[in-house]
Amino acid sequence: xxxxxxxxxxxxxxxxxxxxxxxxxxxxxxxxxxxxxxxxxxxxxxxxxxxxxxxxxxxxxxxxxxxxxxxxxxxxxxxxxxxxxxxxxxxxxxxxxxxxxxxxxxxxxxxxxxxxxxxxxxxxxxxxxxxxxxxxxxxxxxxxxxxxxxxxxxxxxxxxxxxxxxxxxxxxxxxxxxxxxxxxxxxxxxxxxxxxxxxxxxxxxxxxxxxxxxxxxxxxxxxxxxxxxxxxxxxxxxxxxxxxxxxxxxxxxxxxxxxxxxxxxxxxxxxxxxxxxxxxxxxxxxxxxxxxxxxxxxxxxxxxxxxxxxxxxxxxxxxxxxxxxxxxxxxxxxxxxxxxxxxxxxxxxxxxxxxxxxxxxxxxxxxxxxxxxxxxxxxxxxxxxxxxxxxxxxxxxxxxxxxxxxxxxxxxxxxxxxxxxxxxxxxxxxxxxxxxxxxxxxxxxxxxxxxxxxxxxxxxxxxxxxxxxxxxxxxxxxxxxxxxxxxxxxxxxxxxxxxxxxxxxxxxxxxxxxxxxxxxxxxxxxxxxxxxxxxxxxxxxxxxxxxxxxxxxxxxxxxxxxxxxxxxxxxxxxxxxxxxxxxxxxxxxxxxxxxxxxxxxxxxxxxxxxxxxxxxxxxxxxxxxxxxxxxxxxxxxxxxxxxxxxxxxxxxxxxxxxxxxxxxxxxxxxxxxxxxxxxxxxxxxxxxxxxxxxxxxxxxxxxxxxxxxxxxxxxxxxxxxxxxxxxxxxxxxxxxxxxxxxxxxxxxxxxxxxxxxxxxxxxxxxxxxxxxxxxxxxxxxxxxxxxxxxxxxxxxxxxxxxxxxxxxxxx
Length: 811
Description:
The chain has four domains: 115-269, Beta-Lactamase; 303-533 and 754-810, no CATH class; 541-672, Beta-Lactamase (2-Layer Sandwich), CATH 3.30.450; 683-724, no CATH class. It has helices at 5-32, 36-52, 59-87, 89-125, 135-145, 172-175, 225-233, 271-300, 305-321, 352-368, 378-397, 409-433, 443-464, 478-488, 496-536, 541-558, 564-575, 609-620, 728-756, 767-770, 774-810; strands spanning 149-153, 159-164, 181-185, 189-197, 203-212, 237-241, 250-254, 260-266, 584-589, 595-601, 625-627, 636-641, 647-652, 680-683, 696-700, 703-711, 716-724. The strands form four sheets. The protein has a five-stranded antiparallel sheet with strand order 2-1-5-4-3. It has 21 helices and 17 strands. By secondary structure, the chain is an alpha+beta fold.
């Protein structure tokens, strides 16, 4: 045999089995950063695997290779499609609009036919009812034809029977059957009505919900035509009552007499948004294939450690590049303006979500690493943890922005999970390197867990009681780490990795929870202080910009012939003010100077006489006015003359009145619950000292309270903002749940890594070996009971308190 061929043969074998993994990593990069270079590298890896890796491999490994080939082809198709879409956008949209327009016309006529059939059947069957309250019959008719609501009125317009849901009052013209077809467009809902006369002069009415402007976040999937058409085609539509001039791009609802009852416009999306949407679907398709290919390559590979190490490395790349930010609700976790590590270099910055994914995926990589050939004594393990724990916490905190953890508890849970995961890897590494010449008793396992839980309980109690924990505090977890190092010597070689891993999770979680809780408390205090400072400020640039935009939009809508309420509501929604926590009073004044319509968002009651006079002067001026009275009930007053001759006025107070409620308040921020704490204003009576206008914080029985004096032009107040913290009972429940969650998640990924080595449970590990004595049985039984009881108790307590909180918020 030619000796020169041996290195080439060895290199071909190496490229044959590692080539598919190179392809998988390259496709992972394509998922995160689409480009032709990634596809070229992926193709090279697949070619190497196909030429030199198939020999000796089974069908499972070959299937993974095939999926990678399909992924490359799909990636190339996606790049080509997105490129063509961007280059020929106008042509693409013209074809798409014609295709969807045809479907839209068919669906509109189907809505009309179903309404006709339902109304006619109800009118025909009215004389066949044995009694007028024969509700099941009308239910069957409505269900058969799929209309939103069905009603029967007598000849005097009185309701006889009804089935379905109709939001708002049915127009009187419809109740008396003045027209066979009608469409009424209101600010929140638009209904298509079809009527039919009964033999005794009554009217059968079928109503179809065509559109709703309720935000999707508050569960506004109400079965309206617009939402169902979007689900069917992926395109948004805009319904306009009546016929629009120059409406060639509109699809109309054509009545049997040829008249168009309404026009529907297919909204044209932004080219970049549509390209991103198309590419996103392809990215998820490729990523799903990559997960399957990874599993097949890992299972079908040669059962050796190098295969497991490479597979774990591939899994880390998948975790680092998975496009989870495209999933609604998860995007804040991947927003680098809220959290970013490291601060330098910028190309390596990670968001909070990415850090958590990499840390958890690191457990799989840790499980496949070979045992090091050197060991360290127990004192070195304790010293290492005492030094590394503060460094890890300090490094994680360096990525936090001032308000990162102030708004959403879910973000804090992810942050705690990320910190706990990194600390778990730290403790596990220390325990992996530790060896002792003597075997300890297994009771040290319980001592290690108890000491870690005790430290965590003490730290959490101190935080909840207002204490500041210095970063060096976490060095105390060197005690349970050293105890755990001693405890692992009591177990056999097969049992030691499992026991050490579980101890590492407990130690890391009990260290992470109080320290991350401190970070959340500090963030909420910072956010509360900003709320008070903003309330006292004379100006709010975001609110100013939103009000000016609202006035401009209202003027445009007034020229379209919309109703007053519709103008106010649509302008408020489109201005962006609905996405923020701004209280507003919007009023439409007719040409005679009379109040015609009013919308109140977070405000109830009538304005004070002084404020009403300010508004009246601005309204009667006949010109655009933007006033800054800096009152407790009005930070801004705006008056906008509209092209229709009407005048729109807006009052924006610095804070919503305490206890104020209004119907539209539930639509602010898409119906999502407020992420801020309420501010209480206590009036300062004449002659009382004003107090300091600087912000101070005081401890209370329920948490913290920020205080400062706020002086308006018409009144002065002591402003208080509470920062409520959970009690010890609720905090214990949450801590127990976090510990159970971390145990389940971290262990699952560690077991996955052991599975890559075909060694999920080492052969020498036996259940009987874990309970070799009565004392051990009692110890494990107590631990199991403790863990199960904490999990059940924590879950029930947390759910009960959460439900009570939600009920209170709704009331």
